[in-house]
TrEMBL record:
Annotated ranges, domain HTH dtxR-type: 1-62
Chain segments annotated as transmembrane: none
Superkingdom assignment: Archaea
Name this protein carries in UniProt: DtxR family Mn-dependent transcriptional regulator
A Pfam cross-reference name: Fe_dep_repress
PANTHER family in the cross-refs: IRON (METAL) DEPENDENT REPRESSOR, DTXR FAMILY (PTHR33238), IRON-DEPENDENT TRANSCRIPTIONAL REGULATOR (PTHR33238:SF7)
GO MF annotations in UniProt: DNA binding; DNA-binding transcription factor activity; transition metal ion binding
Native species: Halorubrum trapanicum
SUPFAM superfamilies per record: Winged helix' DNA-binding domain
Length: 141
């Protein structure tokens, strides 16, 4: 996974709150990014078939985009569970998101297959930290 997952999660969360299409400004605010950066990402997501982007209107998730957002949320929830339950670290949401984003698709899919759904079903999409300060990296994770 990568930051694409975070954009898809933001769009998915905003859609669940009842607005569609999702405006650039809403995602920019949710992710603490500039509107120009979000517009560029929307274009790339559209090219990848993950969203349907209409300039000046916004985006909607395609079925592939929605599926990827759900998988990202599941992987994040599994990593968060591991930090909290196995490692006994409580304040780990941002770090868990970075770890989840660093996983490749095969590892992410495998995690969702082998970890029981009860582990991650308690994490709401609204619990997923979307905005992480721009200068944070995966160093030390």
């Amino acid at each position: 996974m990568n930051r694409t997952g975070r954009y898809l999660l933001a769009i998915h969360a905003l859609t669940r709150r009842g607005t569609s299409p999702i405006r650039t400004k809403a995602v920019a605010e949710e992710l603490d990014r500039s509107q120009a950066a979000v517009t560029e990402k929307f274009k790339r997501l559209d090219d990848a078939g993950l969203v349907a982007y209409e300039p000046y209107r916004g985006v909607t998730l395609t079925e592939a985009g929605r599926s990827r957002a759900v998988t990202t949320r599941r992987v994040y929830a599994i990593v968060l569970w591991f930090y909290r339950s196995v490692l006994k670290i409580d304040s780990c949401e941002a770090e868990a998101m970075k770890v989840a984003e660093a996983l490749g698709p095969s590892a992410a899919n495998r995690l969702t297959e082998v970890v029981p759904s009860g582990v991650y079903s308690t994490v709401s999409i609204e619990d997923v930290p979307l905005a992480v300060p721009r200068d944070e990296t995966l160093e030390g994770v």
